[in-house]
Write a structure and sequence with these properties.
The longest helix has 15 residues. The protein is α+β, with helices and mostly antiparallel strands and about 120 residues long. A hairpin with a 2-residue loop joins strand 4 and strand 5. The chain has a five-stranded mixed β-sheet with strand order 3-2-1-4-5. The chain has one domain. The chain is built from five helices and five strands; from the N terminus they run E-E-E-H-E-E-H-H-H-H.
């Protein structure tokens, strides 16, 4: 089993996270087995979660209800600032419309047709 770390921003300096089991396709979301409220930053959530997840090598991460990838638990503890940057980029990429998220290249032949 690989756990799911769900992080939510509640306010300007207010974050919470839960840890739960993954679910089978079509199954309801599992109840959290761990929850921590009142942390003041995303980085603090990652560090705290890393302490709770020491028995697991990896964790699926969700932010604001969106899956933002899989991370090594050791990296949550040792490089939380870098992990936050990576996760926020993935979160923002997921909020773009499909065409904006994947810009297409225009080769020379297409460019001459367009101009």
């Amino acid at each position: 089993m690989q756990p799911v770390l769900e992080i939510r921003k509640l306010g300007e300096r207010s974050y919470t996270y839960t840890v739960r089991a993954t679910r089978a396709t079509g199954a309801p979301v599992a109840e959290p087995c761990y929850e921590d409220r009142g942390l003041t930053s995303f980085v603090e959530c990652l560090r705290d979660a890393a302490e709770a997840l020491t028995y697991f090598p990896c964790v699926y991460v969700r932010f604001q209800g969106r899956c933002v990838g899989e991370q090594l638990v050791s990296r949550l503890e040792s490089q939380p600032e870098a992990v936050v940057r990576d996760l926020l980029v993935r979160y923002l990429e997921g909020s773009l419309p499909p065409q904006a998220a994947m810009p297409q290249r225009i080769d020379a032949a297409q460019a001459s047709v367009v101009s």
